[in-house]
């Protein structure tokens, strides 16, 4: 099964990326995912079930430890043709 996760961390800071956002980006970019799209207002990653769920676990734990007060995410099951 393939999964797509979309997420944001808060609070926002438009002048400088907060520590929790930097940590979230590092976690996702270091994970063994098939695709990663990191942006200022939202982030998306795709991969196999184990890789995505492992990355989401680390993302939640580490971004909260780094000061995130809210993490919003959406997780979708996708088919091979839905890239």
If you compute it from the alpha carbons, what radius of gyration comes out, rounded to the nearest whole angstrom?
12 Å
- Please count the beta strands (DSSP E, at least 2 residues each): 4
- The string of secondary-structure elements, in order, is EHEEHE
**End-to-end C-alpha gap:** 13 Å
Strand adjacency order, main sheet: 2-3-1-4
Low-confidence stretches: none
Entry keywords:
alpha+beta; 2 helices
How would you portray this structure in words?
The protein has two helices and four strands, in the order βαββαβ. The protein is α+β, with helices and mostly antiparallel strands and 83 residues long. α1 packs antiparallel against α2 (49-65). It is elongated and about 40 Å long. It starts with a strand and ends in a 5-residue tail after the last strand.
Write a compact overview of the structure shown.
The protein is α+β, with helices and mostly antiparallel strands and 83 residues long. It has helices spanning 19-30, 49-65, and strands at 2-10, 35-38, 43-48, 70-78.
């Amino acid at each position: 099964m393939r999964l797509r996760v979309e997420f944001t961390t808060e609070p926002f800071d438009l002048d400088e990326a907060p520590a929790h956002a930097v940590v979230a980006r590092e976690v996702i970019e270091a994970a063994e995912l098939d695709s990663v799209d990191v942006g200022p207002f939202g982030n998306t990653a795709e991969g196999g079930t184990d890789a995505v769920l492992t990355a989401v676990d680390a993302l939640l734990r580490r971004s909260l430890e780094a000061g995130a007060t809210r993490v919003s995410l959406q997780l979708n099951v996708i088919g091979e043709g839905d890239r």
